[in-house]
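Summary of Year 1 activities. Much of the first year was spent building the evaluation harness for sequence design. The harness presents a backbone, in tokenized form, and records the residue chosen at every position. We chose the following record to illustrate the format because it has been used consistently in internal testing since the harness was completed.
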């Protein structure tokens, strides 16, 4: 999986390097695969600040440092939820860009009731730039969904950087 995304990660790295900008990553249902894909590029410190896997409320509270009220009315695997996370990880880690993925990979029920095979990736950038994309696989295959969600998130990031 990571080898398959390396070429895309290299293109993303080139776009960020050309801009002299960096990204912070909040992996959700992707389990760290977005960050891992970007880190396959040599010299990643040039464009990658860091991030985390947000898989529990505790991790969310620590990484995003937002009051619980900030999530009021939001559900996981939704555009507004992913967007809030992308903004928070970007701002908390001091990057120009932030990406977050929130989804339901399947194999077990999602805490918010999101259907298996649903993911939302959100990218935020300088000057108020925001971009989201929902992916629906219709599958309950956990591993296949993790791969599909990672590819979709990386494509969302590449599209955002190419705007």
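For this record, the design step produced the sequence shown next.
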């Amino acid at each position: 999986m990571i080898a398959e995304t390396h070429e895309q990660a290299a293109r993303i790295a080139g776009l960020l390097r050309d801009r002299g900008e960096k990204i912070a990553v909040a992996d959700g249902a992707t389990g760290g695969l977005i960050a891992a894909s970007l880190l396959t590029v040599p010299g990643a410190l040039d464009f990658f600040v860091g991030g985390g896997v947000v898989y529990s409320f505790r991790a969310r509270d620590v990484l995003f440092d937002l009051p619980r009220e900030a999530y009021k009315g939001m559900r996981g695997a939704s555009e507004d939820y992913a967007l809030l996370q992308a903004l928070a990880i970007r701002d908390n880690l001091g990057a120009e860009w932030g990406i977050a993925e929130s989804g339901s990979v399947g194999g077990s029920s999602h805490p918010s009731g999101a259907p298996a095979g649903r993911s939302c990736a959100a990218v935020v950038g300088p000057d108020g730039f925001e971009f989201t994309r929902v992916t629906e696989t219709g599958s309950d295959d956990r591993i296949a969904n993790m791969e599909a969600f990672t590819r979709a998130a990386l494509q969302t990031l590449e599209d955002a950087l190419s705007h």
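Helices lie at 2-19, 33-38, 57-64, 79-93, 142-161. Quantitative recovery figures across the full test set are reported in Table 2.
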